[in-house]
Amino acid sequence: MNLVSFASAMEGVAWRGLVYTVFILHFVLACQLLLLQPLVSAVDGKSGDAAELFERVSQNIKVKRYNEALNDLNAAIEADPTLSEAYFHRASTLRLLCRFEESERSYRKYLELKPGKAVAEKELSQLLQAQSALDSAVSLFDSGDFTKSLEYVDKVVLVFCPACSKAKFLKVKLLLAAKDYSGAIAETGYMLKEDENNLDALLLRGRGYYYLADHDVALRHYQKGLRLDPEHSELKKAYFGLKNLLKKSKSAEDNVNKGKLRVAVEDYKAAIALDPDHAAHNVHLYLGLCKVLVKLGRGKDALSSCTAALEIDEELTEALVQRGEAKLLTEDWEGAVADLKSAAQQSPQDMGIREALMRAEKALKMSKRKDWYKILGVSKTASVADIKRAYKKLALQWHPDKNVDNREEAENKFREIAAAYEVLSDEDKRVRYDRGEDIEDMGMGHGGGGGGFGFNPFGGGGSGQQFHFTFEGGFPGGGFPGGFEFHF
What would be one Gene Ontology cellular-component term for the protein (predicted)? Predict the structure, then answer.
């Protein structure tokens, strides 16, 4: 083959390659046009394709497939940068998701292409309001103004941006802070329907159940989240914190059952300290602690624990009963009667409460009597000899003849001393007094005028009248001859 023939052959091959290349390029271009055709605006009169695009976008938004809607709109804009309606729909979709900066850029681009469009200007204004409201809500949450923060989220942000996940999570945190645990559970339930593996929603929903003391359900939420992400710090903290609380609470109950009451007291206190804000669980811890302290006779401490339980649940009958018992220990008779009456009204068929109320009423009645032991300065276990010695000493001390300057006070004191001795020196009267019986002739403190005594040194006459008070058989305790007379 000569050079001319070779050159001709090579030239033919080159031309065939060029033709083949041009064919391939045209084929690819045709495929691209066919694929993008439904997304391109009707600038060339194909309005049906644009309508189909926006209908598909609308349907995706209805079923909350926001990413698919945005993908379609982005592809349409890439194919035709002058497709104004695509910018508007993209801006609206981004606004729903509170992607504020991206949404604002799309609204402004649309208004460049379609100046003065009122609908777009209105939505842009709503977007800016929502952005400002969300910033304010976050600041208010951080400062502790949960009510105002929730207003911004509910009445502005989620009105203009209903798919805003940041606002939704902030709302759940606000509901938890406001102790609306059922509301928080409901809100996170909606989130988990959209994404059952949403870790933040699992955490917050678990907290809602936790603060309702539905601990088993709370644990299931934490466990599911940890299966998805074993290193999630907040889920780990919540899970192990709850396990520790349940362990410490059970330890307190076990020690009560074993009779280790002092150990149980420390367990109860430790469990409460783990989460002082867990009211639904702590109410039972406070009650358990109060009951143990009552058994230990620590009335003041028991009173504090039962009051803490009643501050959480003012109608907790058992806490009222136990606080009544604690008040009996601290000799707050009227307070004990008030608490036990309230408990009896709540549980009128409970005989145990009625018996406790009767004890409190008896203690109150006894507290209003003269305390003859206190008047003589002796203990309730004093012997007859102790009582006589105390009486002799006080009678001499307060004899009116020895207290001329304060005769009236001395006479009153002497009456009380004589009345105390009359009761406590008589075995039968003393026993009945100790039982709290209401006996009319039990000393001068009941009925006045010294009724029931075989003597009345000061009753009857006016001032200056002379009375004779004779101790038959000598002064109690000896020391004076029989028939010694005091003259008043």
Answer: endoplasmic reticulum lumen
Mean pLDDT of 382-392: 92
* Angle (deg, nearest 10), helices 215-228 and 233-257: 150
Residue whose token pair is 């803490």: 308
Question: CA 364: distance to chain centroid?
Answer: 35
Q: 453 in helix, strand or coil? A: coil
Reading the block at residue 432, the tokens are: 């009945």
372-487: CATH topology is Helix Hairpins (1.10.287)
- Please report, as a single letter, which amino acid is at residue 221: H
Number of neighbours of residue 401 by Cβ within 10 angstroms:
10
- Give me the CATH code for the 277-367 domain, please: 1.25.40.10
What whole-number distance in Å separates Cα of residue 337 and Cα of residue 359? Answer: 9
SS3 of residue 457 by DSSP = coil
Closest CA to 393 of 455, 474, 477: 477
Q: Across all residues in the chain, what is the average pLDDT?
A: 84
Using alpha carbons, select from 357, 318, 353 the residue that is nearest to residue 337: 357
How many CA atoms lie less than 13 Å away from 177 in the CB half-sphere?
17
Pair 470, 384: CB distance under 8 Å: no
Cβ-Cβ contacts under 8 Å for 420 (sequence gap 6 or more) = 370, 372, 373, 375, 376, 391, 443
pLDDT tier at 370, thresholds 50, 70, 90: confident
For residue 123, name the pLDDT band (cuts at 50, 70, 90): very high
Q: Which helix (H) or strand (E) holds 106?
A: helix 100-113
User: What span, in angstroms and rounded, lies between the C-alpha atoms of 289 and 295?
Assistant: 10
CA distances from 393 to 66, 387, 388, 399, 482 (A): 98, 10, 9, 10, 18
Instruction: Report d(CA 376, CA 91) in Å as an integer.
Output: 93
Q: What CA–CA distances, in Å, run from 173 to 43, 97, 152, 278, 483?
A: 48, 19, 14, 16, 89
Asked if residues 336 and 327 have their Cβ atoms less than 8 Å apart, the reply is yes
- 43, containing H or E segment: none
CA distance 247 to 149: 37
Task: Domain ranges for the chain, please list them.
Answer: 277-367, 372-487
Distance in angstroms (rounded) separating the CA atoms of residues 452 and 413: 18
Residues in the chain: 488
> What one-letter code names the amino acid at 322?
Q
* pLDDT for the residue numbered 401: 86
Contacts of 190 by beta carbon, 8 Å cutoff, 6+ apart: none
The residues that bridge with 485 in the sheet, in sequence order, are: 470
Secondary structure (3-state) at 313? coil
Instruction: Give, in order, the Cα–Cα distances in Å from 280 to each of 213, 216, 253, 299.
Output: 6, 14, 17, 24
pTM of the model: 0.70
Burial class (CB in 10 A: 0-12, 13-18, 19+), 352: exposed
